[in-house]
């Protein structure tokens, strides 16, 4: 999952680490007398509990001979202050130094289908985090860059998760969840997976086929219901989707079923008729949760559709299917930032069990772990 993106992030880390390492190498190259002066300055300014100096940035520690003469003072002053910073386990990175790696990262993210505004946000975060200010690094420059990248990625991916199970627990029953999205992205399969997941969490559910538009939709969802052993409410093809979901809510109410999972026709976001059906469903049934479903592999297209569906009937969260087949990761990185709503689950295969609750920290850990390989 997201292997192409992992490689690209790893390349950025290597380039940016080189920039930080170069500062340390320059420091090591200084003549002994300057190094001694540096050490004195560092000793003067270092707090008593100063952290251990990073391996890569270790200043010269051997005492040395003469002090620099007056001519050297100006040039050594900047060096002294920087080296003193290094001695305290701190580093300063110039914006100019970081520009080339950041440009590479920008291309790499765009190539991975990360949305433009999301790319800009990530770059701004990294710049703000790394450039100019003295940054403490206790272990290595690697940690410094990794932390900046981690924070930048989390800032766009983590828009405030909510746990669907907690939401269901705290909402009066039956809880109605409606699924929207375009054709053929795995919506019906995702509903079936979620019924299985909710069962494992102790909740019963009823399926409702609000996709009255497509021939064969009733049969498709009924097959899933049978395989899962749950009730399924359907109407004839061409019927009113709102009426189907409404009936399912009544059924759940009468039979103590916890959750109604309502499918809708896989509509084109450009289809006014189908979009107005969605607005009616929203108005009449007033679902507790509306989930937008799309394919991770659709990249920017999925992100654009999420934005448009959110406008038609406010989305509470997204499920991205086919994450198992997605090397780019663009939609997974972008969709939360663009909609302001979290990704709730990732679909990771065709089996009912292949639905993973989404955890931004775990995703970022995974994306950054590749470069340790
Ligand atoms: N690899 C993989 N396949 C998936 C995943 N989710 C769904 N699929 C497959 O994608 C295909 C389409 O899924 P459906 O559930 O029929 O899609 P749909 O959105 O309901 O399609 P419509 O009913 O036409 O709107 C099926 O073969 C699913 O098994 C996933 O996370 N990973």
Proportion of helical residues: 40-55%
Heteromolecules bound: guanosine-5'-triphosphate
Name the CATH superfamily assignment of the largest domain. P-loop containing nucleotide triphosphate hydrolases
Sequence of strands across the biggest β-sheet: 5-4-6-3-7-8-9-10
**What is the CA-CA span between the terminal residues?**
15 Å
> What is the number of strand segments?
10
Rg computed from alpha carbons, rounded to a whole number of angstroms: 28 Å
According to CATH, what is the class of the largest domain? Alpha Beta
Domain module count: 2
CATH fold descriptor of the largest domain: Rossmann fold
Catalytic activity: GTP + H2O = GDP + phosphate + H(+)
Family: Belongs to the GTP-binding SRP family. FtsY subfamily.
Subunit structure: Part of the signal recognition particle protein translocation system, which is composed of SRP and FtsY.
Organism: Halobacterium salinarum (strain ATCC 700922 / JCM 11081 / NRC-1) (Halobacterium halobium)
How does this structure look, described?
There is one protein chain. With 373 residues, the protein is α/β, with parallel strands linked by helices. The chain has 2 domains: 3-157, SRP54, nucleotide-binding domain (Four Helix Bundle (Hemerythrin (Met), subunit A)); 164-357, P-loop containing nucleotide triphosphate hydrolases (Rossmann fold), CATH 3.40.50. 54% of the residues lie in helices and 12% in strands. The chain has helices at residues 3-29, 32-45, 70-87, 95-111, 116-130, 141-157, 164-169, 187-200, 217-228, 241-254, 272-285, 300-312, 330-339, 360-369; strands at residues 90-91, 135-136, 175-180, 205-210, 231-233, 259-264, 289-295, 317-321, 343-347, 355-357. Guanosine-5'-triphosphate is lined by residues 183-189, 214, 217, 266, 321-322, 324-325, 347-350, 354. Residues 1-79 are annotated as: Disordered. This is Signal recognition particle receptor FtsY. InterPro entries: AAA+_ATPase (IPR003593), P-loop_NTPase (IPR027417), Signal_recog_particl_SRP54_hlx (IPR013822), SR_rcpt_FtsY (IPR004390), SRP/SRP_N (IPR036225), SRP54_GTPase_dom (IPR000897), SRP54_N_sf (IPR042101). It catalyses: GTP + H2O = GDP + phosphate + H(+).
